Amino acid sequence: MNNNQPIGLFDSGIGGTSIWSAIHALLPNEDTIYLADSKNAPYGQKSKEEIIELSIKNTEFLLNQNAKIVVVACNTATTNAIKELRAKYDVPFIGIEPAIKPAATHSRTQTIGILATKGTLSSELFNKAVEIYQETHIIEQVGEGLVQLIEDGQIHSPEMDKLLHTYLEPMVEANIDYLVLGCSHYPYLLPQIEKILPKHIKIIDSGEAVARQTQNVLREKAGLKSEPGSQAIFYTNADPKVLSDILQHRYEILQKDF
Ligand code: DGL
Fold first, then answer.
1. Structure pTM?
2. Which is the closest atom of ligand 1 to the Cα of 74?
3. Residues catalogued as catalytic
4. Taking the domain 7-96+207-255, which CATH number applies?
5. Do 189 and 155 meet the contact criterion of CB atoms below 8 Å apart?
6. What is the pLDDT along the chain (258 residues), one digit of tens a residue?
7. What does each C-alpha distance from 85 to 44, 51, 54, 176, 258 come to in angstroms?
8. How far is the CA of 150 from the centre of ligand 1 (A)?
9. Ranges in the chain annotated CATH 3.40.50.1860
10. Domain 100-204 = CATH 3.40.50.1860
C-alpha cells in the first residue's frame, strides 16, 4: 500500500526532534511535519487533563495538515494521553515510552535508573509497565528543570551540569548498570551524561525503537510513500531560534500561533 501523505509528529517542544531524526534516518523518503508546542512546555508538570487537551490540539493541527499517522514524540504526552487520542481519532498513533524492558531484562546488577518527567513517572501506563519487573530495583528520578533549560537554549550551562550531577550520582552509588532516558529531550544531554556516568553503565533511549515501530505501522496500515525525495516541515509556536539551533540550521522553521 502506498500513501504520499506526511508523517505528523508532535512534542511539548524541541526534544521530539530526537525521534524525528531516528524516523528520518530509517525512512528518508517520507515527508514529515513536526510540531513543537514550546509555548506550553514543559508538559511534565501539568495535570493529565491539561496534557490530554494539549495533545488533542496538536493532533488536530497535524490532521489538518493531512498527516497519515501521528507520532507522539513525547513520553509525557504518550503516557498520559495516547489512550484518549486513539479512542478519538481513526488515524494510527505511535507513542514513545521509557525503554524499561531492555534495561530490566539485561541488567546484571538488577538495578536500573530512569530519568523522566514527573508526568511520565506518575502515569498509570508507566506504573503498569514497572510492575512487570518486580525483581529489578528501578530508581525513578524526576528530571526537574532539565526540559526548561533545553527549551531555553541552556544545554551547555553550569546549571544543567549541576542538575545532572544531582540526579545521576545517587544512581551510580546505587550500582545501576543501565540508565533509561525517559524523555525525548534528554538524548540532547548525552555528552554531559556520558561524562558523569562510568563507562560500564549503558544508556538507552527509545528513538530507534519508535522509528522501527513507525515503519511497521506504515507498512501494515497507513502506507509508505512511493516517490523518492522528501520534505520536512517544522512548526513552532515560540521563538524559532532554539528549534533551529537544535536542527543545526539545516531546516526552515515556520512560526505559527497554535
Ligand atoms: N519531550 C517530553 C517527554 O518526552 C518532555 C516533557 C515536558 O515537556 O516536560 O516527556
1. 0.97
2. 4
3. 74, 183
4. 3.40.50.1860
5. yes
6. 899 999 999 999 999 999 999 999 999 999 999 999 999 999 999 999 999 999 999 999 999 999 999 999 999 999 999 999 999 999 999 999 999 999 999 999 999 999 999 999 999 999 999 999 999 999 999 999 999 999 999 999 999 999 999 999 999 999 999 999 999 999 999 999 999 999 999 999 999 999 999 999 999 999 999 988 999 999 999 999 999 999 999 999 999 999
7. 18, 11, 11, 35, 18
8. 11
9. 7-96+207-255, 100-204
10. yes
